[in-house]
Amino acid sequence: MTIQRRELLTALGTGALAGLAGCSGVTGDSDEGGAAVAGETLTLTTTTSTYDTGLLDSIHGDFEALYGVTVDAVAQGTGAALESARNGNADAVMVHARGLEDEFMRNGYGVNRRDLMFNDFVIVGPEDDPAGIGGTGSATEALTTIADAGATFVSRGDGSGTHTKELNLWEAAGAEPGGDWYQETGTGMGEALNVADQQGAYTLSDRGTFISQRSEVDLTVLVQGPIEDGPEVLSNPYGIMAANPGVHENVNYDLAMAYIGWITSPGTQEAISSYEMNGEQLFFPEAVSEDPDFQQYVPEGWSGDSPDA
Amino acid sequence: MPIDPVVPLLPVVVDSSSTLFDLPFREGYVSSIVYVSLYVSLVAVALSTLFSVPVAVLLGLAEFPGKRFVKSVINTGMGFPSVVVGLVVLFAVSNQGPLGSLELVFTREAMIMSQFVLATPPITAISLAAITGVDGNVRDAARVLGGTRLDAALVVLKEARYGIATAVLAGFGRAISEVGSVLIVGGNITGADGISKTRTLTTAIQLEARQGQYETAMLLGAVLVALVLTVNAVVVRLGDRGGRR
């Protein structure tokens, strides 16, 4: 939607007036002026990839209307999103790093974990592909080739789900990332893609963010993820968990469970699968299935026979 | 379309013929983040002024041991990194923190708290400089003419008003332009309807930059500059009017 001159002026005017109103209301109720919030508020901490692709904004309206509530989605990156919940500052968490999710569950901070949806990671780089990884069927092989060639690689370096995946891949490849060619940016995916673009570097990206930004950068997919028949190791599953009300008694557990029920329902899963950007589907729902899937409730690889039980 | 560097920022922003304003934002989005920015910063600065100016008057007029130390603590406060302030406030309002029961995390109130902490050192320090800069004879004259200590303080305050206005503007500038603490304690939240809850201009700029949308980030930056410019112009204008009386 375009903002025309008049709308802008109105916007600035109301902004100024509202500011003044806020000023005179110092002694009054500091909540005035915001949208009237009927009912409760769900605080959902999540990753930048679900938020920045616009998915959550597009589906949350339904949930808010259905329950008469507000969803506060805080986009933080997987590490920070889980940490917020550990400190009792989130009611539900939607992230994409199974290892970190399992640790969170094992430590008792989360309950009722569900598999939500997936997409995949891709290794992108400049079109001229200086290290020659194009067409490689293996992600680890591609990384080893990049390391051997000393070609510039941009790492998120921010403890996000994508960063965690990248580190796991380096470990699996048996290569030690480091040296001049390995650059940690400590930024979001969009910025990391821009940095990689400017430096003619390689990077690991979730497919959603890459699709949403492809028109802005001269990078191309060199190693595909499983959605395009790439290696399974590049899959990118998202999970959702409620904060454990036994640990933090004032988390909004009822609303968190309502949210988890809603987002894993057939209707919402359908809405997720029909969310597109630039004509491409970004997320593939996996909560609705005829078959049992016990593994979504427990740490990966856990079974009743394991010594953990 | 390239931005002509000769053209001042303000006309660029309000020029309706410019295609620059085809922003991918929903109606009400920009105005709501402008509102949140102004609301949080103005409330924080107002509260901080109510606290800082009396403190500056006390410090400026009283003599006591350790005064230099207090001064240097305040001056150090001007250099507090906003991210650290944000972390400290987050710790305080977090569910497990001392103020956890108030449930302030990711609210505007928490943002006001962190901006209060950020704005107070510059407002106090610059007010203090303005007050100590007032000629000692002024105070003495007030006392000689039969004024009380309070009268003397008020006279000094009146003499120092321009310096104090500068102090308040400096505090406002610090509050509205910082991004680190409001991002941490506010969470940069917008509702699904595109209306900001705790998103300010600075955190919106940070969000656009994170997504690599540098052009929209720059436009929001221009809105922020225009806003600060407007507030400064209003304050200067009020000051002039007051001076003529």
TrEMBL record, chain A:
InterPro entries: ABC-Tungstate_binding (IPR052738), PBP_domain (IPR024370), TAT_signal (IPR006311)
Domain (PBP) ranges: 43-266
SUPFAM superfamilies: Periplasmic binding protein-like II
PROSITE patterns: PROKAR_LIPOPROTEIN, TAT
Domain of life from the UniProt record: Archaea
Gene3D superfamilies found in the cross-reference section: Periplasmic binding protein-like II
PANTHER family: EXTRACELLULAR TUNGSTATE BINDING PROTEIN
Protein name: Tungstate transport system substrate-binding protein
Organism listed in the record: Halorubrum aquaticum
TrEMBL record, chain B:
InterPro entries: ABC_perm_TupB-like, MetI-like, MetI-like_sf
Highest rank taxon of the organism: Archaea
Keyword set includes Nucleotide-binding: no
Membrane topology: Multi-pass membrane protein
Keyword Translocase: no
Location within or outside the cell: Cell membrane; Membrane
Gene3D superfamilies: MetI-like
Cellular component GO terms, alphabetical: plasma membrane
ABC transmembrane type-1 domain: residues covered: 34-235
SUPFAM superfamilies the record matches: MetI-like
GO term, biological process aspect, one: transmembrane transport
Keywords noted in UniProt: Membrane, Transmembrane, Transmembrane helix, Transport
PANTHER family from the UniProt entry: PERMEASE COMPONENT OF TUNGSTATE ABC TRANSPORTER
Name of the molecule in the record: Tungstate transport system permease protein
Source organism phylogeny: Archaea, Methanobacteriati, Methanobacteriota, Stenosarchaea group, Halobacteria
